[in-house]
Specification:
Length: about 425
């Protein structure tokens, strides 16, 4: 039994087969696709604009038992119209003919495999998620849109990962107009790219040609987290202990598409752990040797951490607004630092403190910023050997962990 709706992916410039529209009573698609095909005698055509009217028209034809053909760019099942059609009519009523996606075509032009690439759509969305994914992963394809094109991506990336290579692929598949250009983020930000951009690839060329893979997609979640302190270089045990880090990570909730600040980063243990979980990370550290240590720890764990050598809160002003913030350390300036972080954090601020007298002021700073606040005193004792095959419990220093959370806006979420 034939299915009532046929969806044909036109690929990147490939001609639509003549037989694709045979017998159709209604043909729906972009103007250039419709102009390139011959419609059957008596068939109606609808130029795609707003989706809802087109879906309503398709529904009427389907209800009357008439055949509908939808022409779509690239692969219609890859960030395409298949989702809307299947939600409206059911997947079992669609006959989908895939085409070559712009992502596959762009990587092919470069001679690169893309089973290990991350693909993120910025079409119709704020570009922040795409920017954070580009910072966190070495091989990313961004599906662009108005207000989220190469210039906007380049401007954001130039501030934190200026060494990335952006490959801007325009009019893919059009022999007369196709262009594939390699530029720096700063060069991308300085140009008007026009409406013909098909896809933007963001590459960290030192890491883009990864090992042979048997599992497609980005690298999976790490096998372990809240790593032992021995996994990091640190000075005089000045590091967030693994027990504290475990709860801090649970409250921060780092994920792909997020930006996390680690303020007063020290060894960068929290920053590195967040990066291992897929988030983009900016680590702020006031000491020069600390900044060097953070970079070394990030390199040792094969993640990318943007390190800012400076003192908070002054050093925070040039950073992009974070989804979550971890604040470590103490001092009289801690409440002011927390207040500055809370003004910019979109979701969560987590603060670790050793001193009891800092707790009320930090709690007030979070509450005044509109966060719901909770916290715990963490006290742990670790097994420690004694002579004679005897074990004792060795107490670690107690730490107060406070966290403030706000309800996310409807637009927030992962767009991977």
């Amino acid at each position: 039994m034939s299915r009532p709706v046929t969806v044909v992916g036109t690929g990147t410039g490939a001609p639509v087969p003549a037989e694709a529209t045979a017998g159709a009573d209604l043909v729906v698609g972009g103007r250039r696709h419709l102009d390139a095909v011959a419609l059957p005698q008596g068939a109606r055509r609808i130029v795609l604009g707003p989706l809802a009217p087109a879906l309503d028209a398709i529904e009427k034809y389907v209800a009357d038992g008439r055949r509908v053909v939808v022409l779509a760019s690239g692969d219609p099942g890859f960030f395409g119209i298949v989702r809307a059609l299947s939600e409206r009519f059911g997947a079992d009523r669609l006959d989908v003919v895939p085409g070559v996606s712009s992502v596959a075509a762009a990587f092919a032009r470069l001679g690169l495999t893309w089973e290990d690439a991350v693909v993120v759509s910025a079409h119709g969305r704020h570009p922040r998620t795409a920017v954070h994914v580009c910072r966190a992963y070495p091989k990313v394809a961004v599906l662009t849109g108005p207000g989220a094109g190469p210039a906007e991506l380049g401007a954001a990336l130039a501030r934190t990962v200026p060494g990335r290579v952006l490959v801007v692929a325009s009019a893919l598949g059009d022999p007369a107009r196709e262009r594939v250009e390699r530029v720096t983020p700063a060069e991308a930000a300085a140009r008007d790219w026009g409406p013909a951009v098909s896809v933007v690839l963001c590459l960290d060329e030192a890491r883009a040609q990864g090992p042979v893979r048997t599992l497609a997609g980005p690298v999976g979640r790490p096998a372990g987290w809240a790593l032992d302190e021995a996994e990091f270089a640190h000075r005089d045990s000045m590091i967030t202990k693994s027990e504290v880090r475990a709860l801090a990570l649970a409250r921060l909730g780092p994920r792909p598409g997020d930006l996390v600040w680690d303020v007063g980063s020290g060894s960068g243990s929290v920053a590195v752990e967040c990066a291992r979980l897929g988030a983009a990370v900016s680590a702020v550290e006031k000491t020069a040797d600390g900044a060097v240590r953070i970079r070394a720890n990030a390199a040792a764990h094969e993640v990318d951490v943007h390190v800012v050598h400076g003192s908070a809160p002054d050093a925070l002003g040039e950073l992009d607004d974070p989804d979550a913030v971890f604040v470590g350390g103490g001092g009289r300036e801690l409440p002011a630092i927390v207040a500055a972080c809370a003004r910019q954090a979109r979701r969560t601020v987590v603060v670790a403190m050793a001193a009891l007298d800092r707790v009320p002021a930090v709690r007030a700073a979070l509450t005044d910023a509109g966060f719901g606040v909770d916290g715990v005193l963490l006290q742990s004792s670790r097994l420690a050997p004694l002579p004679g095959d005897v074990t004792r419990l060795a107490a670690t220093n107690p730490v107060f962990l406070l966290w403030g959370s706000r309800t996310p806006s409807p637009e927030e979420g992962v767009a991977l």
